[in-house]
Write a structure and sequence with these properties.
Layout: H1 3-15, H2 17-21, E1 34-38, H3 41-51, E2 55-59, H4 74-82, E3 85-88, E4 109-111, H5 143-160, H6 165-191, E5 199-204, H7 208-214, E6 217-223, H8 234-247, E7 251-255, H9 261-270, E8 273-278, H10 293-308
Parallel strand pairs: 1-2, 1-3, 3-4, 5-6, 5-7, 7-8
Helix pairs in contact: 3-5, 5-6, 6-10
Length: about 300
């Protein structure tokens, strides 16, 4: 069963109270709070914004962990099966959840990216064996997409626990307003960058939604595609170096989750500055300033803007 087939079911589950009612009382913890599982750090952070301490939240992936390589432990499987609501990214990012939530368990799952226009990926290999053949899953790098995720989370939690619906809705509205402010602040940073300076190369193609929203041109990526398990050849790197020089690329962007060694060498070979420590697949650790989605967006935007000015 593919996630495309699950999506229709989970979209209905997000809007229909009876489906959640089928989960029964087993979805609540000993303290009476609803058990909620989020697959990624981004979704977990958004649940905290919407629900605060009104739910018993488990986030499966830790800060800095790679969703592509994650293998649920027996404890994680038990937490998923005991949850009243499971919130996932979809678009191939957390495809490992498929077997766990198949069959009767699927009614508990909500894909929080439902309703977002997904970027296509046109890289070799992505339609054959790459979990991202469904498109680019890194939707949270556009604040407008995050607002859709927030609304979907509010709907899912409200359907599962109607008594808390007003609180979920109020918190969700407040965070949506905060994202509007973040969006405006980032747009102001990018508007201050001369148009000729807005060309970048990345470690891998994970920031496309950010670039599309704020008018940054992605000239190329060191690792082809949106997955990270493909390594560039020497010929690929030589061609990319030539492209960087020809196009006048201003910066090479290296994500926190990927070893920047190759990016650093490419920067040294081309004389282009490298920006390290960007958050692509995960939020930052607590205290990093990037442990919330809004904090991550502003952290990345500030580093990119400083490099391109």
């Amino acid at each position: 069963m593919r996630f495309a087939g699950i999506s229709a079911l989970v979209a209905l589950a997000a809007l229909t109270v009876p489906l959640f009612g089928a989960c029964g009382g087993g979805g609540n913890g000993d303290d009476g709070r609803m058990r909620v599982v989020a697959t990624t750090t981004q979704i977990g952070a958004l649940v905290r914004e919407v629900a605060g301490d009104r739910v018993d939240l488990t986030v499966l992936l830790a800060a800095g962990a790679d969703a592509h390589d994650y293998e649920p432990s027996p404890k994680a499987v038990a937490q998923i099966k005991e949850a009243k609501v499971v919130l996932m990214n979809g678009i191939g990012l957390d495809a490992w959840l498929e077997d766990i939530v198949s069959g009767a368990e699927a009614e508990r799952v909500v894909v929080v990216t439902e309703g977002i226009a997904v970027r296509e990926t046109n890289h070799a290999g992505e339609e054959d064996g790459d979990s991202h053949g469904e498109g680019d899953p890194h939707v949270w790098h556009d604040p407008a997409n995050v607002q859709v995720m927030v609304r979907n989370i509010v709907a899912a939690l409200s359907a599962a626990d109607p008594a808390q619906a007003d609180a979920f809705r109020a918190n969700g509205d407040a965070y949506i307003a905060k994202l509007d402010d973040v969006d405006a602040r980032i747009q102001a940073m990018m508007d201050a960058i001369p148009e000729a300076n807005r060309k970048v190369v990345t470690n891998h193609d994970s920031l496309g939604y950010f670039f599309d929203r704020y008018g940054i041109e992605l000239v190329g990526a060191i690792i082809p595609g949106t997955a990270k398990d493909t390594q560039p050849s020497a010929k690929d790197l030589a061609s990319l170096a030539e492209l960087i020089k020809r196009e006048g690329v201003r910066a090479i962007l290296a994500e926190q989750e990927i070893d920047p060694k190759i990016a650093g060498q490419l920067a040294a070979d081309t004389g282009v500055k490298i920006v390290t420590g960007l958050y692509a697949d995960s939020l930052g650790a607590p205290g990093s300033g990037a442990d919330t989605v809004d904090g991550m967006l502003l952290s990345n935007a500030t580093k990119i803007a400083e490099a391109l000015r």
